[in-house]
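Q: Is it fine to ask for two folds in a single conversation?
A: Yes, each is treated on its own. Send the first.
Q: Here.
A: Result:
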Amino acid sequence: MANPNLQDIIEKQVLTVAKAVEDKIDEEISALDRLDLDDIEALRERRLQQMKRMAEKRSRWISLGHGEYTEIPLEKDFFSVVKASDRVVCHFFRDNWPCKLLDVAITGKKIMRKNYYVRAIQYVMEYVMDKHMTILAKQHIETRFVKIHAEKSPFLADKLKIAVLPTLALIKNAKVDDYVVGFDELGGTDEFNTEDMEERLAKAQVIFFEGESSLNLSKSSAQTRSVRQSESNDSSDSD
């Protein structure tokens, strides 16, 4: 049985919080009531200006290649990419020749089998990373998502100390601020969700994130539309 005194304390705390929330709401309502037409027009104009600035930002981001996951062809191009965008996620990868892996599996050759096995694991990891980066590039247009071949970029790989592949370099204001090395931070498996990667990038503040995954919000919106369409169809059928 709960302690009566403890229960009273909890109830009082709940009432106190509820009263504070109610007072805050009343204060905001009163502030709205005090607005005259000039105040409302000023708020409207401010909102329009905010929307205009955001549209200009989106247009600039798209012109820089945001919204797509692309490969940087040459090592020297890396520097112009990270200087042009405030936030960049760069995936360092290598080629792993899946066709040769298939040859080994079919012929049963023992030569270099261990090496090919390692390459097979890396190939899967690179494929998984590409999949998640492609999704996030479309969801987070505020950030540039790119990839670069580590072995063809020896100066960069050495300067940034890229030792494990795949590695994500998280870049803000033209400086590498953080790394995601392999999948250790994502559960140590290639079966992690895109939301897991999204939260990791948000933790590094290289993408905009407001608590709930933008992917979940998109799914929720799609499900809502689906339900509404279903209800509309049912209504039409009943007519």
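Q: Second one now.
A: Result:
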Amino acid sequence: MSASAIFILDLKGKVLICRNYMGNMDMNEIDHFMPILMKREEDAEMTPLVSRGSTHFLWIKHSNLYLVAMTRKNANAALVYSFLYKIVQVFKEYFKELEEESIRDNFVTVYELMDEVMDFGFPQTTESKILQEYITQQGHKLEVGAPRPPATVTNAVSWRSEGIKYRKNEVFMDVIESVNLLVSANGSVLRSEIVGSIKLKVVLSGMPELRLGLNDKVLFEITGREKSKTVELEDVKFHQCVRLSRFENDRTISFIPPDGESELMSYRLNTTVKPLIWIESVIERFSHSRVEIKVKARSQFKSRSTANNVSIMVPVPSDADSPKFKTSTGSAKWVPEKNVVQWNIKSFPVRYLKIIEKSGYQALPWVRYITQSGGEVIRHWNKTHLNTHTHTHTHTHPRLVAHLELAS
């Protein structure tokens, strides 16, 4: 059981468009949603689910819109929220931006999409590339008729069309890891984690089957291999193309990928890591109205790696007036709306992929590792904190090692 109805509301709670999927609820119940939400907000009791009697509202906010699923029974909440975020993604791929104006300007297309993505309360086709094959933003004359849904919609592989052909067959894979750290003033790491994702760009003909091997701790334990450089994956989320039953049995990630760009999986590693860039600061107070802050940044990755577009945020008092600064490298600017001085530095000094396809063509695999600082907060004695945001195009010590095969 999923959702009985889906609503898209403006910021005032007015219904812009809705779809009743099951016909088992009074659609006027949505009028109670915004008053309940406003009351919760006043009482500082905001929750992603609000109820009125036996009616439950599961909602998310995007831009100047509320997307609300309404249900009366014991719905699968995780499925409903996943669906709401997915249709936001579908709308954005159709209209570039999802906001009230784009809904009003594309009313017919939005209603067609809502009709296709869910049936009787259960999610159906949510792959925008497949939907775009038969739901377009162009009108159709009566004598021509509307395009028919492709056979892909009812196939087992609903995320990839049949008959795809390329002259050059390639697969590009990015392993992107964001390092989140909280460091004390004496340099000890209080909390650290890595949030990662694997993104694919697939340029392959036919219906290729790919296998992805990772340095997964559980997999190495099952196979009896040495596990000194393994990682323990947490909060793993897969694209629907991954065969979950096989992953649960032998930890093999086997799939027929969508054409073009997609995110194959995301994960989290709860592990101890050191900051990519270490920040030191000295704060001197010369009078009640003058403070001097000296900030020094030192890289902690190997010389062959480069951190690009480094941004160091140095907090200053909210009553600061035209602070002065100088840098040994890069540039600095005052950002008064955030009460920080932003120091920007432009440049701070594989396994194999195998592809299986019945026709046996040659395919080129490309694997790239990218590490970025998701949020590095360093605490200092006077409660001043420094946030560093870095991006490196070369991975220094990849925690997750990917091994992708095209089956033969």
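Q: Anything structural to flag on that second result?
A: Two points. The first strand starts at residue 5 and ends at 10. Residues 57 and 70 are 5 Å apart (CA to CA).
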